[in-house]
């Protein structure tokens, strides 16, 4: 418990002044909770003295005691307000910073990290886990810290008042602590399992929703939802098992406190009968025995929450401790943009994708990369952008090894248009401006016109302010691709990577897009991954990749004059592009 509280306090270290002030306010408020009981006992005492003729009950006593009770209530309200203003926003502020930090971390890790950690797990870390921390952290800290400090002060007071009653309270706390310790142990064992089930549910939900079109088209709703239902059932079974495991230890924890209350009542009653304690004081102690353990009684829920918070903390810590791919990188500015691969080898896990690849791309030239599916074409572009680090060899841009750059300083030189276009659930305007947030309206529209998407955008109900669905789901493939080209054009980087940039463009617009790309990439270093002859034949050089190796290199005319994969590839493409239904 202490270790977990220490971890949570470290997370909130930036706000520790406010955190400690809130704890003090809460503690004083709890102590003031005893004032009405004390005043009640004193009231009974003066009433008995008045009845027995020992002393006369003055009205001033009544007003004084009522004022003390009212004052303690008002002061508790004020302290509660001060605690809320100091503490309640801390978890929200920490959570906001954590989300921003995770976002920054995910930008600087290898894409291998994103492949090893499934989408559902990362999604729950940023949403469900941090939301749980946001709601529960401060309540759990206050409940645990306040209750134990308050009980410690109470027991110290009882020792000065009645050692027997104090010992009864200590024994009650010991029995209760044994139960709480067992609850904590169960929580420590079950929390990771519960977290795993939450991650699994999130992952299954993401897959089910994303694959809905495929599910419906193949009429496999039952098969597709089987994994989702299994995840739901697993989560239900785990939570029921956890509750059953907690029940006996929670009963022990509460039994200790109930026995403590009973013991205090018994000792108090015997002391009053023997004349060692005045009746008003005995009444006060009996009443107080019913409330002094209230805060500890609720601590089992807080301990359970603490363990779950610890699991969340560990998960976030694992993300934060992920090694940045550019941890040793520097902000580097380069003056020329030639690209060189020298004996580069790379693989995903144990599968080698590229083997001793070497080539040079001179500045301000166009290089086309062709080859069979899975040969390593896209991997070459990913390594150049340093989405992954190579295992062997060297990649340089402007004469500098890409491993010397920070990700931001490297990627500001590169614009990319991916084969699988992703648009954010935002306006078309903001999706285009993602390439250059500081661009003017005129510059954005000019890029859209050059990418041949201005006309269809203006035909939409909201024009550039039209919201696109997640991933651009409300637009056609060709429309999404043209918007992504406009985004890359607006960035105006000196190096442009086009990964099948015209793959989803309809034939009517393809030549317009080719013209737009040619004019707006003039004077830049271009890398094109393409299968279409029109995209490839005008390149300054063509690299033929097969099974992770550069098997041919040259211009279109040079390679057509050689026997090899390129000529076979072009012949097949020409036949495919000239195919018509009438030939059947």
Could you outline the blueprint of secondary structure elements for this entry?
Elements (H helix, E strand, L loop, with lengths): L1 H10 L4 H17 L2 H17 L7 H29 L2 H19 L2 H6 L2 H43 L1 H48 L1 H6 L3 H53 L5 H11 L4 H4 L1 H22 L18 E10 L2 E11 L4 E5 L6 H8 L7 E6 L2 E2 L5 H5 L2 E4 L10 H6 L7 H10 L3 H5 L18 H15 L3 E5 L7 H14 L4 E5 L3 H4 L4 E6 L2 E6 L1 H5 L4 H13 L7
Please describe what this structure looks like.
- This protein has helices at 2-11, 16-32, 35-51, 59-87, 90-108, 111-116, 119-161, 163-210, 212-217, 221-273, 279-289, 294-297, 299-320, 377-384, 407-411, 428-433, 441-450, 454-458, 477-491, 507-520, 533-536, 556-560, 565-577; strands at residues 339-348, 351-361, 366-370, 392-397, 400-401, 414-417, 495-499, 525-529, 541-546, 549-554.
- The chain has 23 helices and ten strands.
- The longest helix is centred in the middle third of the chain and has 53 residues, at 221-273.
- A hairpin with a 2-residue loop joins β9 (541-546) and β10.
- With 584 residues, the protein is an alpha/beta fold.
- α1 packs across α13 and α3 (35-51) packs antiparallel against α4 (59-87).
- Mean pLDDT is 80; it is low at 580-584.
- It is elongated and about 125 Å long.
- The chain has a six-stranded mixed sheet, with helices on both faces.
- Among the domains are: 89-320, ABC transporter transmembrane region fold (Up-down Bundle); 328-413 and 540-584, P-loop containing nucleotide triphosphate hydrolases (Rossmann fold, 3-Layer(aba) Sandwich).
């Amino acid at each position: 418990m202490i270790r977990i509280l220490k971890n949570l306090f470290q997370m909130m270290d930036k706000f520790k002044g406010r955190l400690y002030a809130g704890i003090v306010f809460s503690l004083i408020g709890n102590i003031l909770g005893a004032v009405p009981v004390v005043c009640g006992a004193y009231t009974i005492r003066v009433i008995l003295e008045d009845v027995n003729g020992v002393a006369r009950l003055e009205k001033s006593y009544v007003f004084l005691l009522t004022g003390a009770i009212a004052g303690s209530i008002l002061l508790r309200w004020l302290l509660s307000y001060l605690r809320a203003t100091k503490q309640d926003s801390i978890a929200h502020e920490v959570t906001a910073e954590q989300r921003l930090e995770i976002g920054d971390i995910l930008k600087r890790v290898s894409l291998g990290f994103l492949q090893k950690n499934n989408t559902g797990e990362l999604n729950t870390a940023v949403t469900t886990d941090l939301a749980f921390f946001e709601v529960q952290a401060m309540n759990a800290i206050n409940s645990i810290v306040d209750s134990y400090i308050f009980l410690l002060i109470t027991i110290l007071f009882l020792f000065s008042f009645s050692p027997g009653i104090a010992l009864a309270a200590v024994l009650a706390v010991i029995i209760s602590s044994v139960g709480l310790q067992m609850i904590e142990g169960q929580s420590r064992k079950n929390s990771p399992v519960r977290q795993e089930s939450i991650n699994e549910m999130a992952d299954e939900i993401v897959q089910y929703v994303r694959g809905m079109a495929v599910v419906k088209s193949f009429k496999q709703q039952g098969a597709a939802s089987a994994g989702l239902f299994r995840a739901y059932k697993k989560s239900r079974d785990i939570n029921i098992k956890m509750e059953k495991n907690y029940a006996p230890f929670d009963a022990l924890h509460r039994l200790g406190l109930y026995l403590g209350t009973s013991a205090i009542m018994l000792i108090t009653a015997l002391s009053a009968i023997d004349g060692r304690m005045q009746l008003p004081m005995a009444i006060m102690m009996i009443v107080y025995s019913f409330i002094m353990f209230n805060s500890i009684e609720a601590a089992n829920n807080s301990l359970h929450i603490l363990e779950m918070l610890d699991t969340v903390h560990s998960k976030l810590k694992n993300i934060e401790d992920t090694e940045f791919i550019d941890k040793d990188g520097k902000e580097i500015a380069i003056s020329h943009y030639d690209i060189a691969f020298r004996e580069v080898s790379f693989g995903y896990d144990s599968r080698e994708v590229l083997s001793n690849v070497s080539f040079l791309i001179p500045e301000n030239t166009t290089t086309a990369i062709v080859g069979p599916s899975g040969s390593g074409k896209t991997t070459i572009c990913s390594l150049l952008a340093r989405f992954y680090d190579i295992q062997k060899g060297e990649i340089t841009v402007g004469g500098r090894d890409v491993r010397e750059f920070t990700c931001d300083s490297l990627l500001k030189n590169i614009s990319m248009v991916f084969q699988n276009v992703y648009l954010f659930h935002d306006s078309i305007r903001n999706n285009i401006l993602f390439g250059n947030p500081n661009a003017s309206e005129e510059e954005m529209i000019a890029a859209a016109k050059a990418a041949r998407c201005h006309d269809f955008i203006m035909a939409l109900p909201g024009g550039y302010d039209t919201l696109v669905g997640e991933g651009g789901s409300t637009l056609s493939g060709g429309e999404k691709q043209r918007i992504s080209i406009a985004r890359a054009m607006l960035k105006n980087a000196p190096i442009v990577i086009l990964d099948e940039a015209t793959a989803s463009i309809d034939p009517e617009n393809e030549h317009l897009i080719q013209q737009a790309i040619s004019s707006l990439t003039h004077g830049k270093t271009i890398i094109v991954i393409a299968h279409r002859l029109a995209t490839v034949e005008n390149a300054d050089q063509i690299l033929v990749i097969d099974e992770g190796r550069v098997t041919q290199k040259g211009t279109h005319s040079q390679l057509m004059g050689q026997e090899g994969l390129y000529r076979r590839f072009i012949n097949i493409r020409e036949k495919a592009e000239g195919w018509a239904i009438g030939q059947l």
